[in-house]
Design goal:
The chain is an alpha/beta fold and about 270 residues long. It is built from eight helices and eleven strands. It has a single domain, classed as 3-Layer(aba) Sandwich (UDP-N-acetylmuramoyl-L-alanine:D-glutamate ligase), CATH 3.40.1190. It starts with 15 loop residues before the first strand and ends in a 5-residue tail after the last strand.
């Protein structure tokens, strides 16, 4: 009689779950997020919230998934796998954001990283009010985010549009804290008179600052890359400040490697050196 041998005990693999659009060029969002997570020793689950038609030059069209489909797929994975952290990438409509808010509320014990950005100016989204979408992000998802990753220029734009005024805060960062975000990792923040970098603003604690290389790839890659790396760090059990420090160091190294596969912009090269 042959006895089945027990499988050897293996170290737990961190399992981040990432919500975002699918970029068929592999330059951004879910395809490259999966590669980044693998490089960090994690295995990511992917929930497609929209499909882009795009190349290396930019986005031509966006097909959004139905909120019911997003909800069904997310709960399938969350009920099956021991997810360690959640990242929510770019979102384009209030209905999907509302569903994501309900999902994250139901799994509120999981740390969530929220990438804050504006919807792209494509014809498919012309019937939607971009300010309503941003307001939904701030009112429904920001209160549940442990960490938000955002470019300082985006925050200045939203402040100018009055989208942060409901908090009554004096600065955009304070407004995000008032919305409920404990930690804000802000790109292109002023480190000195002529130097920008990355700053982590943690509620009630001194800020932490790091230099940042001038990007030679898609501008949005920086925030997306940082958000994914922070999510991996949280899934590995790190505290937010530790996850942010690790993310900045890893991202700075990754940004030095890029290539030119098409007729558009250069994109990050995520293959192993």
């Amino acid at each position: 009689m042959i006895r089945a041998m027990a499988a050897p005990d293996l170290p737990a693999t961190p399992l981040p779950l990432i919500f975002g659009p699918f970029d068929p060029s592999g330059a951004s969002n879910l395809p490259v997020d999966a590669v980044i997570c693998a490089r960090m020793g994690a295995h990511s689950g992917s929930i497609v919230t929209a499909i882009h038609v795009q190349d290396t030059a930019g986005v031509e069209s966006i097909q959004r998934m139905t909120p019911d489909l997003v909800d069904d797929q997310a709960r399938c994975l969350l009920e099956d796998m021991t997810i360690g952290a959640i990242k929510i990438g770019p979102q384009y409509d209030p209905e999907t954001i509302s569903v994501l808010a309900q999902i994250t509320a139901d799994y509120s014990s999981l740390p969530m990283v929220l990438q804050l950005c504006n919807p792209p100016p494509v014809a498919d989204l012309e019937g939607l009010d971009a300010e309503e979408t941003v307001s939904a992000l701030l009112e429904l998802l920001a209160p549940q985010a442990l960490v938000a990753v955002v470019d300082s220029g985006t925050l200045d734009l939203w402040a100018g549009q009055g989208l942060l005024s409901s908090s009554g805060a004096d600065t955009p960062i304070e407004a995000l804290h008032d919305f409920g975000v404990s930690h804000v990792l802000c790109g292109n923040s002023a480190l000195s008179t002529d130097l920008n970098g990355i700053t982590l603003y943690s509620r009630g604690l001194p800020s932490r600052r790091w230099p940042w290389p001038a990007p030679s790839v898609r501008v949005s890659d920086g925030e997306s890359l940082l958000a994914t790396l922070v999510t991996c760090g949280l899934a590995q059990g790190h505290e937010p400040a530790e996850a942010a420090q690790q993310a900045v160091a890893m991202a700075a190294a990754m940004l030095t490697r890029h290539f030119h596969p098409g007729m558009g912009q250069r994109i990050l090269l995520q293959t192993t050196p």
